[in-house]
Amino acid sequence: LKICSVYFPLQVIQCLQAKKKKKLKVQGRKSKKLAKNFLKAPDNRNNLSLWKLYAYLEWLLGNTDDARKVFDTALCTAGTGGLKSAQLCSLSLLYAQLEVELLESIEGAVMSRAVHILTKLTENGPYVPYSGQVLSVNVLKARKTYEHALQDYLSQTPVSDQGQVNDTDQLVNLVGCYALFQYLTVGIDAAVLIYTQASEKLEASGSQKCESTGENLGILNFPTALEAVTLLHTNLLRFHMKISVYPLNPLREALTEALKRYPSNQSLWRSYIHIQRKSHSASKARRFFDSVTRSTNSLEPWLFAIQAEQMRKKLTEKVQRADVGEIHCTIPETGLTNRIVALFEHAVQSENGTHCPLLWRMYLNFLV
User: Fold this and answer.
1) What are the extents of the domains in the chain?
2) At what angle do helices 300-320 and 357-367 cross, to 10 degrees?
3) What pLDDT, in 10s, does the model give residues 250-265?
4) Which of 59, 95, 108, 278 has a CB 3.0–4.6 Å from the CB of 67, allowing a cystine?
């Protein structure tokens, strides 16, 4: 069940990225049929993870209205657990995130469907589908509820390993919901403040060690939670930059600090090379890649350093080969081919790179 939950959305996403419409249609039918068959089983009818998967598939396939109906149905049948239910928080967070991606501006977002979802989550009552408006008094109550709930989670101590796993997921979902709620109702600075406070608390918790046993005395599995919170933080900054005028430096600083701590996180690396494409100077990024590859055995920094240089090379060649008369290249060729080959050579000589088929295939493909 867990394998299917990951595999089929991934297949749909790959079809979307490759723009293979026919394959997407076939894969979409297969995925939806599988999800429906799972939900028909008596033991799975109240499984919020499956409902979440089904709704997400509908959204990926472009069936927004159908996806909303599935989300609403799942929330209506989920009970009244509110912020204390990890699955309910996770479902509401995904629903709200997808709705936020449809916004063209943050102005007027306080009356959006996303705010309605995040507000209803705090009321511990039956879910009511969005009717087009959100009461201001409910927004104020929700903000207080989120604030108290986050304080409670940040101050608690786990009692078991299983409790740590559950509490980690719950804390991440709670921080995500609260920060997104603040973003929509107050602004980006208020959302960043939530992420900053949560990260500081998690870091402080991770540093609290028992001298005799070496066990954590603070909250839950703090490295996992801190990494997930960091990813939510950077994703929100990227989205805000897409719909608003906002400086690049906060996002760049957040990504560089996060990647020093989590050099294997592929999502963070994708975000980093995406923002570096907007910069005309490659020297800072190259120095950063060099420092990370020297300090970790992870292969991801090498792979993304190579990808960044290949993207830069492709852009340079596109400018130089443009068939529109005389072109004066504004991005000078500085031996990108030799630089990429050197990166490949260093990467394949590393302990992990020597045994990585992907890296060798990339190297052979580039040489061809």
Assistant:
1) 1-78, 82-154+166-203+224-245
2) 20
3) 999 999 999 999 999 9
4) 59
